[in-house]
């Protein structure tokens, strides 16, 4: 599947391999514009994609990590030659699946606040909250926000979800395939090693938010078994959306790793 892409080029010549960015669940490529501009300053082309069933990418019935890894493999190959890959949350699991299966031209891997494990939580309540919004009279995103308050009390999470609401004079629609995401939720919070799953020996940075419980020290033995070249770092005072909460520190840490 050809994914929608947003490309950020450096002002000068490209001096380092390009970087592909895969967002997390309910996200879009646009969420990464600021990070992309900062990383492009190092002389790299940065391409952020909308994952399937998100943003302006095509919708599909399936949303497995094998499917998403295949989408990323196509996008990675289109960059031409050696390239780096950064994935956050769902995008991080898709990136790990690619590396363990058919890494192709992958040079360096950055996994942001996720581990190759199954989680007990579910984001299905967020899907149901978005489904319950009556969009018939909505012409601006702010008009939908009150309808989300009871089901999504966290203001930051509401703002994040509303970024995927397209609204205008002609009406409003979610830029998410909510039905497909609801069906896929058990797969999205789960994890199965690709078959065959060969450990990926390349340089890999697992970057956590210090206030998040998604990527913990307890996960490190499992990660090292699959990614023997793994390094670990944490951003202080950052949660799961560490790239949005600490953008400068996030970009600086990723830049130092990619350019090492």
Structure report:
The structure is a single chain. With 260 residues, the protein is of the alpha/beta class. The protein has 2 domains: 184 residues, Rossmann fold (3-Layer(aba) Sandwich); 59 residues, no CATH class. The protein is built from 10 helices and 9 strands. It has a 7-stranded mixed beta sheet, with helices on both faces. The chain has a two-stranded antiparallel ribbon with strand order 6-7. Strand 4, helix 3 and strand 5 form a beta-alpha-beta unit. Helix 1 crosses helix 10. The radius of gyration is 18 Å and the shape is globular.
Compact description:
With 260 residues, the protein is an alpha/beta fold. 36% of the residues lie in helices and 17% in strands.
- C-alpha termini separation: 32 Å
Query: Main beta sheet: strand number and arrangement?
Result: 7 strands, mixed
CATH domain fold name of the largest domain: Rossmann fold
Give the number of helices: 10
The helix-and-strand class reads: alpha/beta
Helix and strand pattern: EEHEHEHEHHHEEHEHEHH
The CATH first-level class of the largest domain comes to Alpha Beta
Mean pLDDT: 96
Q: What is the molecular shape?
A: globular
At CATH's second level, what is the architecture of the largest domain?
3-Layer(aba) Sandwich
- Give the percentage of residues in beta strands: 15-25%
Number of strands: 9
Q: Provide the spatial order of strands within the biggest beta sheet.
A: 1-3-2-4-5-8-9
Enumerate the spans where pLDDT stays under 50 for 5 or more consecutive residues: none
Count of separate structural domains: 2
**Radius of gyration, whole Å:** 18 Å
In percent, how helical is the residue content? Answer: 25-40%
CATH superfamily of the largest domain: Alpha/Beta hydrolase fold, catalytic domain
């Amino acid at each position: 599947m050809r994914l929608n892409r947003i490309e950020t080029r450096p002002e000068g010549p490209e001096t380092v391999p390009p970087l592909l960015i895969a967002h997390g669940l309910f996200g879009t490529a646009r969420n990464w514009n600021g990070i992309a501009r900062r990383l492009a300053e190092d002389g790299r082309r940065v391409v952020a994609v909308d994952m399937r069933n998100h943003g302006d990418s095509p919708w599909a019935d399936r949303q497995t990590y094998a499917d998403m890894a295949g989408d990323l493999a196509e996008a990675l190959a289109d960059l031409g030659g050696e390239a780096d890959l950064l994935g956050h949350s769902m995008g991080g699991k898709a990136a790990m699946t690619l590396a363990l299966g058919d890494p192709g031209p992958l040079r360096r891997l950055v996994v942001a606040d996720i581990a190759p494990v199954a989680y007990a939580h579910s984001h299905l309540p967020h899907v149901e909250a978005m489904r319950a919004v009556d969009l018939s009279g909505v012409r601006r995103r702010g008009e939908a926000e009150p309808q989300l308050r009871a089901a999504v009390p966290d203001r930051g999470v509401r703002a994040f979800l509303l970024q995927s609401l397209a609204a205008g004079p002609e009406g409003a629609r979610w830029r998410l395939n909510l039905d497909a995401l609801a069906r896929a939720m058990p797969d999205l919070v789960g994890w199965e090693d690709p078959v065959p799953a060969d450990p990926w020996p390349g340089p890999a940075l697992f970057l956590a938010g210090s206030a998040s419980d998604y990527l913990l020290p307890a996960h490190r033995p499992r990660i090292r078994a699959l990614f023997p070249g793994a390094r670990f770092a944490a951003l202080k005072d950052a949660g799961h959306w560490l790239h949005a909460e600490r953008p400068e520190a996030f970009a600086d840490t990723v830049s130092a790793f990619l350019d090492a």
